[in-house]
Amino acid sequence: MLTKRIIPCLDIKNGRTVKGINFLNLIDAGDPVELAKIYANEGADELVFLDISATEEKRKTLLDLVERVAQQVNIPFTVGGGISSVEDVELLLKSGADKVSINSSAVKNPDLINQLSDKFGSQCVVVAIDAKQIDGKWKVHLVGGKVATEMDLFDWAKEVEQRGAGEILFTSMDNDGTKNGFANEALAQLSNLVNIPIIASGGAGNTQHFIDCFKESNADATLAASVFHFKEIEINQLKNELRKNNISVRI
User: Fold this and answer.
1) What is the CATH number of the domain that holds 176?
2) Which of 28, 43, 109, 243 has a Cα at 20 to 30 A from 34?
3) Which range marks the domain in which residue 127 is found?
4) Mind listing the pLDDT tens digit for each residue in 85-131?
5) Given 45, 88, 130, 176, which residue is catalytic?
6) Is residue 130 flagged as an active site residue?
7) pLDDT tens column, 119-171
8) What's the total number of domains in the chain?
9) Is 28 a catalytic residue?
10) Rounded Cα distance, 141 and 149, in Å
């Protein structure tokens, strides 16, 4: 049985870790370099770093900060935000990233997924999909959730797999920051639809939410932010609880 992964997420704005609710009302959550070091020591399986305002501000990811975080961790490290070319990815990998996460740029230029997969291998390419329910249908959103599209979550997920993405990071905007649990029904549908790993994001509020997500959705990994940043849940304790519930994790 493949082990399930626990992934803290560092949402970065102006060089600081931030967290909001439904992608809005951001508050400071600490220094990303310090948090990265703590999570690596606590037993996180991977780390995700998202420069959430890079696309909106039409700039590239903060390379110096990526480098400083990479020096502190010995676990797989995924970086996203403002990536729109093969050259961007080359710079990030040289700065210490192991994988990259693309979102808005993949929707605007789907061939970018093929290009990155061909050049760096599918294992390097994570496609992040932010979606919310509108009239009962899951619609893809861009630019940190600020721009709605008519694209269907499930159609887009199938396409990114066909184009060579190695993983999908699905964030439910409806659940994000609410601490009411993950969007397990949509996650289960995604898991049944594609054959690449699904990372669940948005809604973690307590240990039971992680247990429910793994059992009900068949997600391969869960990603969370504020519950880790504000010490509501410690990763090693979470993993012990998951094991008690017959969910295989790396200790």
Assistant:
1) 3.20.20.70
2) 243
3) 5-244
4) 999 999 999 999 999 999 999 999 999 999 999 999 999 999 999 99
5) 130
6) yes
7) 999 999 999 999 999 999 999 999 777 889 999 999 999 999 999 999 999 99
8) 1
9) no
10) 6
